[in-house]
Amino acid sequence: MEDGPPGSVSRPPSVRPRGSNRDHRIDAMRGAALLMMFVDHIPQNLLNRLTMRNVGFADAAEIFVLLAGYASWLAYGRGFARNGVRDTLIRIARRCGKLYVAQTLMLLVSVFTIREWRRFSPVPVDFLEPELAHGVSDLWRVLLLDALPANLNILPLYMVLLGAFPLIYLLIRANRFLALGLSAGLWLLINVDPTVNFPNWLDPDGWYFDPLAWQFLFVLGASAAIEAGRHGGDLPSYRWLKIAAALYLTFSLVEAFPWAQWGLPKLRPFALPSPDKSTLAPLRLLDVMAIFYLVQSSSVARALSHSRLGQALALAGRHSLEIFTAGTVLDLFGRLVFTTFGAGWPLQIVVNGVGLGLLFLVAQFYERRRVRQRAAASSGGPAVEA
Q1: What is the pLDDT averaged over residues 215-224?
Q2: Of 30, 334, 335, 341, which has the most beta carbons under 10 Å away?
Q3: Residue 164's closest CA among 130, 198, 137?
Q4: CA angle 344, 347, 348 (to 5 degrees)
């Protein structure tokens, strides 16, 4: 798995449609989460009315982090025993380096693009923090992760969690339930006292995704990978647990659905405030775990991952870092286009059609390159660079 994109789980030599026994659910879920992130991060995008954040408490970010923990165990947790400590630590460091390069690239593109766009059209202040919008003297803070812009804050979370993975691995190997207990205790502490956070020069409240809280979802993902590995890739199927998960998601849907936005009467029984995302509030955590359990314990979901749509999503999920980076840049241009020229139906179609189309082209490009590299490696020849 070392030469593949960060976060990839299933690695077939080519995209296998129907007939394969390989489980593509993880990659398909990750692909769906990445596409929803692209849609959600453009506020004027009408498609974001259809993403999971409108049908429950959680959104694509929770799926992304949970699957990062799952994939990290498959790629590195098993790697410690198979490839040795030194090799696995090098692979983790290399992957963190790729994440940092992607973060830096997105930052530089964002700063340059917004400043150039302002030469021709006004850009709202919330597109970039004022400290970055009017000078580069504080850019070093962002490069050192001392300052996280509001729209570039999930990859730093991933870097921290992945950097902590060797410690998480040791705790899980010592006692998985003790590791889960310690992780849950830390998460609970942050929910009781949200002021415990990493410092963020751009925000006195700290990191938007508090790593001390979100680490619990990452650890749960790693633990789920262990459990699924003992049952042929599926989580154990319990009828009572599926019913409980389905009932909770129904409650989550009724409470979180934007009834007024669709011109419908409000059906919320409690009208709960939106659960805090920074601390990964319990309602959000339960939401994402219920979704994950229903998918990973379902033979129907496994079959659907082999459909044309499932394979397309899995293709995007296998190249998660590239898709996320490209999607973040396209988000910026989509927001700028809507802000400057309006968000009418013609531009809605263009922005979404071009954006999603380009993301799938990026996925296809990296998939072809991966297939050529693996073919060259298996034949003993030099790797072919695309």
Answers
A1: 98
A2: 30
A3: 198
A4: 80
Cα separation, 77 vs 228, in Å, equals: 14
The answer to whether 383 and 373 have CB atoms below 8 angstroms apart is yes
Q: Is 271 helix (H, G, I), strand (E, B) or coil?
A: coil
Unique residue bearing structure tokens 């960060």 = 6
228 membership: H or E segment, kind and range: helix 211-229
Kindly state the average pLDDT of the residues 330-339. Answer: 96
Q: Which residues of 285-305 are buried (b: 16+ CB within 10 A; e: fewer)?
A: bbbbbbbbbbbbbbeebbebb
The Cα 329–Cα 109 span in angstroms is 7
Indicate whether 94 pLDDT > 70.
yes
125: DSSP letter: G
Read off the pTM: 0.90
Are 98 and 75 within 8 A, CB to CB? no
The predicted-structure confidence for 356-385, as pLDDT tens digits, reads as follows: 999 999 999 999 999 998 888 777 644 434
- C-beta separation of 134 from 140 below 8 A: no
Map residue 154 onto helix, strand or coil: helix
Of the candidates 343, 320, 20, the residue with the CA atom closest to the CA atom of residue 162: 320
Residues 98-121: tens digit of each pLDDT: 999 999 999 999 988 988 898 898
Cα Rg of the chain, angstroms: 21
Asked whether 60 and 86 are in contact (CB, 8 A), the reply is no
How many angstroms separate the CA atoms of 22 and 179, rounded?
30
Contacts of 76 by beta carbon, 8 Å cutoff, 6+ apart: 88, 91, 92, 165, 169
CA count, 13 A, side-chain hemisphere, 106: 28
pLDDT digits (tens, 9 = 90+) for 269-312: 898 899 999 999 999 999 999 999 999 999 999 999 999 999 99
| Stretch 333-345: mean pLDDT | 95
Whether 309 contacts 22, CB under 8 Å: no
Identify which of 286, 309, 247 has the alpha carbon closest to the alpha carbon of residue 31: 309
State how far the Cα of 299 lies from the Cα of 308, in Å rounded to an integer.
17
Cα distance between residue 69 and residue 224, in whole Å: 9
